[in-house]
Design goal:
By secondary structure, this protein is of the alpha+beta class. Helices cover 52% and strands 14% of the residues. The strands form three sheets. Strands 1, 2, 3, 4, 5, 6, 7, 8, 9, 10 and 11 form an eleven-stranded mixed beta sheet that branches. Helix 13 runs antiparallel to helix 18 and helix 18 packs across helix 28.
């Protein structure tokens, strides 16, 4: 029989048992027992062996039979045993981790934070950018817009384009128009009057978005012919809030903006316009027989037929647009289509909802958090390396005793996976917590935030990443799994880290520092950009100003005089209250977003032809400019002008330069909206005001009087306005209550809502940049802390390993300054290499931030130098404790310990 394997080695085997070796041992045992029995009975040893062989018979057949039996038994037991072994390894891993909190706590926290940051941004990216919109077959939905490159502007779609495109674009299965508006609902009993969000839509919006009614019906095409509308469909949330979910509400009359409408249906929960909450749906006035107007203010959505793309639809629309001047000559006279470069763009609806700036910011953030996770992994890998060095004797002993690499692999992989799964549990909790509060914190900075929640996709990402990281970390100790008998004999001095391992640890630290520099550079550029943006003079004084929304019902307020009288009475009541300095009204607030445009015309003068420009226009009341701190050259219309229909227009300097370059525009003629020979006049020129946002040039804008001249009316009576109150010593809630009481005394059916500080309005205009800055800044700070911890760990470990060497140096006369300089120099070398690599990466990588920056170069020298100095200073700080420990080493103790 062959020489048997030492039995103790088989106890260290992992996985499948060595059945052949076990059978060999068993046969040998019985063979030897029989020989000893025969010898004991007086048989010659040689004869006893021969007799034993004869009694056993065919040993090969016996061995084969036993092997077959053992294999069957092992097959039945193997799965259970493997599970038992894995459970044992998990218990061992948990026990070891519990006994080593200095390793377990930082490793779990570091990986938990890194995984949570990655999961949060992944969830945002997945929900906002990658997931289809919440409509059936949402990939078929496209958005339409009017692009005019020669005017450098983008408009919506006009009413007459709806039937024109529906009849002629084969790629469209259906098409719809919509507008998001606010309407006034009068109070009833104990319920106050309120302003709510309404969707003014074509009847085709429901089949296009495939929204079926939860109760009653949705709109029919004939509902769009009535002006004003006669029916209304309630949104689910508003139905529950206002009517308590009363299913008998169908057929009842409901007062909207002073007009009673029949409630014909209720939409399901979460049904709304793309990324816009809808309280009620009202039919827009869309009569195919009505005269076409160059009034492109509506949003448009279409559903593509199967097999068609957005590009196909745009290609089919292009020739239709060229014929619009011929088909609708009243709307597009004087080659307007050709002169403006007008065309209709078709883009996937999801791209329109998200927008390119948000998409770019999310992808940048996603890359940033992965860099943070890499820094976290490098940090934990360094901890594992340190731990493996400390346990090298144990690993070598196990290997020398016969532990296979498979056994060691399972042992350390289990431990690595256990650590990362504990971190994954922490990450899941943190991710759920952050995603739970994020919609409230972020406000309207991102689209589709209401859909963000912690789900299976987030958990799967965390667990998958944790398993991969755990496997990677578990392989690190295996590099020490070599049967190095010399190491065991020579003692602890041979168990120090090799140059290769030390180089690996140094490389990890350098990489951490480099990635941190890149992240800090990105955050620094955004911070610098935000500072530049905040230093822009908005053109008005926001401090102490409170704004509120006010909506007069159109059914009761049909002329300029009644509207102006109401506003004047309200202003006088509010202004008489203590603490109120000034009161005014305007149709829009500065820095509140795109204000659209309306055609404004100046007459021909001398050699100058008629000038026409589509610009932002609004009607403002007396007191508006004083309340907002906007200075006026010339004068603004007062209440006497309003009472006498004297008109008067205040224009911005940008519009003055456009229409009358080098001239004084005061007294010049100007007209809004409608054709004719009658003109209003320029009464004053305002200071430069940023109307859309601070990062765009001051607007060309015309402020028309609250009551224009009878001969030159504006498009509409200003019913929906923003009330602004200058009251530096009063809280916003106090002012809203004051205004609400004053309005109730004049007309209790008019709601006052949405009180907010103008400083908040200005801050909201930068909210998207601020949100991106906060997330990227948080990622950079996390990377900075992790790098500092990693650097500290490496230097502290090196000092511990070089304790004897340092003791010898001190014994030979090295001063504390020499020792400190040596240790600190080693730290700074790693930091400087990392900083140099990081700056190179930042210069190459921060160019992707260009679109998010304002008046800051992606390679801004000040930011780069500041980041380099900050990281270097932190490196010095992280090295200070190990350096102080090194200079205090007692040479006698160090040499005695050796």
């Amino acid at each position: 029989m062959p020489r048997p394997e030492p039995s103790w080695r088989r106890y260290l085997r992992f996985g499948r048992s060595d059945i052949a070796a076990d059978i060999q041992d068993e046969l040998r045992f019985h063979f030897d027992e029989r020989i000893e029995a025969l010898v004991a009975s007086g048989t010659d040893p040689v004869a006893a062996r021969r007799q034993a062989v004869q009694e056993f018979g065919d040993v090969s057949a016996v061995r084969t039979g036993l092997a077959a039996i053992d294999s069957r038994i092992h097959a039945r037991r193997s799965s259970r045993e493997r599970l038992t072994i894995i459970a044992d390894e998990i218990r061992i891993a948990l026990r070891r981790l519990r006994r080593q909190p200095a390793f377990t706590i930082p490793a779990v926290l570091t990986l938990g934070l890194g995984l949570a940051a990655t999961a949060v941004v992944f969830t945002l990216l997945d929900t906002v950018l990658l997931r289809p919109l919440p409509y059936p077959q949402a990939q078929q939905l496209v958005s339409l817009a009017s692009v005019m490159p020669k005017l450098n502007d983008v408009w919506g779609i006009a009413r007459h384009q709806l039937p024109y495109y529906k009849a002629n674009v084969r790629a469209f299965e259906d098409m719809a128009l919509y507008r998001s508006i606010q309407v006034s609902i009068p109070g009833e009993g104990t319920v106050r009057a309120e302003r709510i969000n309404a969707a003014s839509v074509s009847a085709s919006i429901f089949p296009t978005l495939r929204i079926a009614p939860e109760l009653g019906r949705v709109f029919r095409p004939e509902d769009n012919l009535a002006r004003p509308g006669t029916v209304v469909v309630l949104g689910h949330d508003y139905w529950m809030r206002r009517f308590g979910g009363d299913r008998t509400v169908i057929g009842k009359l409901f007062n909207v903006d002073g007009t009673k409408r029949e409630i014909v249906g209720v939409t399901p929960a979460n049904a709304g316009l793309p990324d816009q909450h809808v309280d009620i749906w009202v039919p827009d006035y869309i009569d195919p027989a009505a005269a076409p107007m160059n009034n492109h203010v509506r949003g448009a959505v279409a559903r593509l037929r199967p097999g068609f793309s957005a590009a196909d639809a745009e290609a089919q629309i292009a020739p239709l647009v060229l014929r619009m001047e011929e088909i609708f000559p009243a709307a597009y006279p004087n080659h307007w289509i050709q002169n403006s470069g007008f065309r209709t763009s078709v883009t996937p609806l999801r791209d329109k909802v998200v927008g390119p700036a948000v998409a770019r910011a999310l992808w940048i953030l996603f890359a940033a958090v992965w860099l943070v996770l890499v820094v976290a992994i490098a940090n934990v890998a360094n901890l594992v390396l340190v731990r493996a060095e400390a346990e090298r004797r144990e690993i070598v002993m196990r290997t020398a005793l016969g532990a296979s690499r498979g056994y060691l692999a399972v042992h350390y992989l289990t431990e690595g996976i256990v650590v990362t799964l504990i971190a994954a549990i922490l990450a899941c909790g943190l991710t759920g917590l952050v995603l739970g509060v994020l919609p409230a914190m972020a406000g309207d900075t991102l689209p589709r935030l209401s859909e963000v929640h912690f789900g299976w996709a987030s958990a799967a990402l965390i667990i998958a990443a944790a398993l991969l990281i755990g496997v990677g970390l578990g392989t690190i100790p295996l590099s020490h799994a070599k049967a190095d008998a010399g190491a065991l004999r020579e003692g602890s001095r041979t168990l120090t880290a090799s140059r290769a391992r030390l180089a690996l640890r140094n490389g990890l630290v350098v990489g951490q520092v480099a990635l941190t520099v890149m992240l800090l550079a990105g955050a620094g550029l955004l911070l610098r950009s935000g500072q530049r943006l905040r230093s822009v003079e908005p053109g008005f004084v926001a401090d102490g100003v409170i704004a509120m929304s006010l909506g007069l019902p159109s059914a009761a307020y049909k002329d300029y005089d009644r509207v102006a009288t109401t506003y004047r009475q309200l202003a006088e009541r509010i202004k008489s209250a203590p603490g109120v300095v000034e009161v005014g009204f305007a149709e829009a607030l500065p820095l509140s977003g795109d204000q659209g445009c309306t055609s404004v015309t100046a007459p021909a003068e001398g050699s100058q032809p008629v000038r026409n420009r589509c610009i932002a226009t609004m009607q403002v009341s007396p007191g508006y400019f004083a309340t907002m701190g906007i200075s006026i050259r010339g004068r603004a219309p007062d209440w006497a002008d309003a009472a006498t229909h004297n008109g008067g227009v205040v224009i911005s300097p940008a519009l003055a330069r456009r229409f009358w370059p080098g001239e004084d525009p005061v007294g010049k003629s100007i007209r809004c909206c409608r054709g004719g020979d009658q003109w209003d006049r320029v009464a004053g020129v305002s200071s430069e005001v940023h109307g859309t946002s601070l990062d765009e040039p001051p607007n060309e804008v015309a402020y028309f009087s609250i009551v224009p001249p009878d001969s030159a009316p504006t498009n509409n009576v200003p019913l929906d306005v923003q009330l602004v109150v200058k009251a530096p010593t009063l809280a916003a809630a106090t002012v809203q209550l004051l205004v609400r009481d004053a309005m109730a005394a004049i007309d209790p059916t008019v709601p006052v809502s949405d009180a907010r500080l103008m400083t908040d309005v200005a801050a909201d205009s930068m909210a998207s940049r601020t949100f991106t800055l906060l997330l990227l800044g948080a990622a950079a700070v996390m990377a900075l802390v992790l790098s500092a911890v990693g650097l500290y760990g490496v230097i502290a470990y090196v000092v511990g390993q070089r304790q004897r060497e340092i003791g010898v140096r001190i014994a030979l006369g090295a001063s504390a300054q020499n020792i400190g300089a040596m240790v600190l120099g080693q730290s700074l070398r790693l930091v400087m290499i990392g900083v140099a690599l990081g700056l190179g990466g930042a210069v190459a990588g921060t160019r992707v931030l260009r679109s998010l920056l304002f008046e800051v170069s992606p390679t801004d020298t000040g930011v780069m130098v500041t980041v380099a100095l900050l990281v270097t200073a932190l490196g010095v700080a992280a090295s200070s404790l190990p350096t102080a420990r090194a200079v205090r080493i007692d040479p006698v103790e160090a040499l005695r310990g050796d």
